Amino acid sequence: MNPVTGLSFGRIAIGTAALARPDLVTRMFGVDVAANPQAGFVARLFGSREVALGVATLAASGRGRTVLVLLGAGVDLADAVAGHLAPREQGLEVLDARVMTGVASGAVLSGLLGLRSGTRGARPGTGV
């Protein structure tokens, strides 16, 4: 499977989980839900973004798909930076922040590898 397609399905899965069960997703990110009752709201914002990026990327082709992959990589890079800053600025446990940073960095790498792979494993006529 092309990394872009896999990443898109991953976005849809985690986004759907965040929309349906924000309490579980925030705990997975190491956030104390009891101490942060608004965390579910923020998780749903994250979830809707992930579903939208995943579905739009799967539906797009050609240059539009490339642009969406780059947009997703930018968002994931911002998430990685947020994970890096979280222990200092938001008091998140270092291990939880490292996991979040690693996942976000992996998503950046997956998207860029998908673009680099070009037509190998791409949808016919898309290049990605």
Observed structural traits:
128 residues, mainly alpha, 0% strand
Short description:
It comes from Nocardioides cremeus. The protein has 128 residues and is mainly alpha-helical.
Structure write-up:
This is DUF4267 domain-containing protein. It comes from Nocardioides cremeus. By secondary structure, the chain is mostly helical. It has one domain. 76% of the residues lie in helices and 0% in strands. It is built from 5 helices and no strands. It has helices spanning 3-20, 22-28, 39-59, 62-89, 94-116. Helix 1 runs antiparallel to helix 5 (94-116) and helix 2 packs across helix 3. The longest helix has 28 residues, at 62-89. It is globular and about 45 Å long. 27% of the residues are buried.
Low-confidence segments: none
Shape: globular
Round the Cα radius of gyration to an integer and report it: 15 Å
What kind of sheet is the major sheet? none
Number of domains: 1
Estimated helix fraction: over 70%
Mean pLDDT: 89
Estimated share of beta-strand residues: under 5%
